[in-house]
Amino acid sequence: MKLLIIGGVAAGATAAARARRLDEKADVTLLERGPYVSYANCGLPYFISRDIEQRNKLLLQTPEGFDRRYRVKVRVDTEALELDRAARRVKVKSRGLEEWLPYDKLLLAQGGSPIRPPLPGADQPHVFTLWTVPDMDRLHTFIEETKPEHAVVVGGGFIGLEMAEALHARKVKTTVVELAPSVLGVMDREFGRQVQGELERHHVGVVTGVGLASIGKDEVVLSDGRRLPAQLVLLSVGVRPELTLAKAAGLTLGPSGALAVDEHLRTSDEHIWAAGDMVEVLHRVSGKRVRIPLAGPANRQGRIAASNMLGAPVRYRGASGTSVVKVFEATAAMTGLSERAARDAGFDLGVAVIHKDHHASYYPGGRELSLKLIYEKKTQRLLGAEAFGHAGVEKRIDVLATALHGKMTLEDLTELDLAYAPPFSSANDPINLVAFVGQNDVTGYAPLVTADAALAELKSETPPVLLDVRSSKEFSAGHLPGALHVPIDDLRARLAEIPKGRRVLVHCRSGFRAHLAVRTLLAEGFTDVANITGGWVSLALAG
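Structure (tokenized):
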């Protein structure tokens, strides 16, 4: 059995090792276009920041090491040029020489490549992308030798944010430029704004809603005419799947534009499988075929593809897009669908938001955690979750990713028996609490409205009453125009001030006092009342 694997990083390297464990006799060859195989590309920004000081820590295997441990023939600096499906062979080029390599079964694991927009000046030596070890080496050397004073990171996604922090750590004054209305566009806008606040607190500039027009020697020109100093420019505007070989060979592409594969990761050719960033997969929540270019799914796909190639059938059931990013001292993370994505997918959804200490409020050192659940109203099924904070973020998102995998509901989440001690959580974990809030919404016990929806209602021709139940001190520090201020402890005595024939939207700082107010109003005969989920904190982020 001749197994040929094209692509030697996440999916490809994992597949090669798995293939050997399954079949000691198989002839396994791994091709990699670059000079390194099986390296930690997710760690590249942390070498630039110097959090990782030893470069060799990122090189997980060498061709020689692969051969010694797995008896896998690894050929680096080898590019696949042509795929002859009929003859089951691949033309490759290495050190200027071309040859055909035969295969019985082929795995394409070529990943993706960073998009390099055709901007004037984008080909200059101080303009970089970060995707491979050589990219990292060039960027590191440039910083060491030229000591740039200013940098512009174009794109506020995961790599852009990590690189903004890395350049800041190297004493380079950095600005992130993002074309979308907020950074971290995969998450809802309020989380992008919290990430932006964290960047700005650390003196990293953020410009949103604007693109780049051109790149000069010492500056960039934005699409609105503004100029920013930049002796270093990092392009991080997205990744496209590497499909040159697959397209030329006539393999079927999917609706997302990536390579189509079945549940066993087999392509439209029965002898060819594919895995990693170049394929589209089933989104476990939306049910749509999408691209999810993340390292975790790529590694799992490589393992599953190798199993299927060697006759050990394993289904790949898709991914939920669970992801996390460190931004200085803060963490942002998500799983499943954002609110925006769930609406676009056509779900009749509900949203519950809390802002609460990540552990018991009476224990020292608590940090506020923003946690958002997106759920289907009819079934109470969890659709997605997002979080931001300075402690406890990834813990909650990992629990909720597991809940998504198990198709759990709000009721299931309210009953989760999670570990509790004051330094780690509260008796009702934030996950339990936000599920309580969502369940109160779908049952009608305490209806919710999102901050965005509330602001839209307030601008309508028939605006609702906005009831602010915070303290007088909180109200004086800032409030929305036209708000009726009745502190929660005075509400029962001042019910006559609230018009009964109109819709009433209630808010406090983060939600709990407003919940109490909603229950009181409903008990007193008010019929159209809703709590603005997330309260003043979410209103400030939405406004």
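The longest helix spans residues 295-309. The chain has four domains: 2-112+240-309, 127-237, 329-443, 448-542.
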